[in-house]
Structure formats: structure tokens, C-alpha cells
Amino acid sequence: MENQEKRLALVGILVEDLNAAQQVNALLHECAHFIVGRMGIPYRQYGVSVISVVLDATPNDISSLCGKLGRIKGISVKSLQTKAGK
């Protein structure tokens, strides 16, 4: 496996099925060592929760987390990451 530089990433998660929140939290807990910060906002008017997570991780780790989150029913996820690593 190649040695990848870490990148700063922002992951946006929309939780449209609140029953899936436990699975999301479990995955985020598994990746706690990558998490710089996290903010969750329940938006009751739409019946959703919005979670933004800042990560310091390799592109593979970011992609893996987003892929796992995206496979959870009722969850939408998008990510942005810096172009250059550190």
C-alpha cells in the first residue's frame, strides 16, 4: 500500500431517516481518531439532521468513511478535501 499524505476534509451528512442515526454515530465513533470537529443540527421543520465533520485523514480513509455512510439507507453524504496533503 502506498504511503498517502493526510488531507483536511469536510464531510456533509444528511440524515433523512432518523432511525439510521445510530449507524452513522457508530461509524463516526470508529473514525474518531481522524475527526478534528463535528457539528450536528437537527432541522425539525424538514425532519432531518445535518451533520458536518472535519477530518484529518488520508484520501483512502475519507473515501472509505463516505462509502460506508453512503450505503446506509436514509443517509446522503458528500465530501470536500484539500488538494495538497501534509
Short description, anyone?
With 86 residues, this protein is of the alpha+beta class. The protein has 2 helices and 4 strands; from the N terminus they run βαββαβ.
Question: What can you see in these coordinates?
Answer:
The protein is built from 2 helices and 4 strands, in the order βαββαβ. By secondary structure, it is α+β, with helices and mostly antiparallel strands. The chain has a 4-stranded antiparallel beta sheet with strand order 2-3-1-4, with helices on one face.
Provide keyphrases for this structure.
2 helices; single chain; alpha+beta
Q: How would you sum up the global shape?
A: elongated
Radius of gyration: 13 Å
Strand content: 35-45%
How does the major sheet shape up?
A: 4 strands, antiparallel
Question: Helicity range of the residues?
Answer: 25-40%
Give me the strand/helix succession. Answer: EHEEHE
Low-confidence stretches: none
Number of strands: 4
Report the mean per-residue pLDDT as an integer: 93
Alpha-beta content class: alpha+beta
| Span between termini | 18 Å
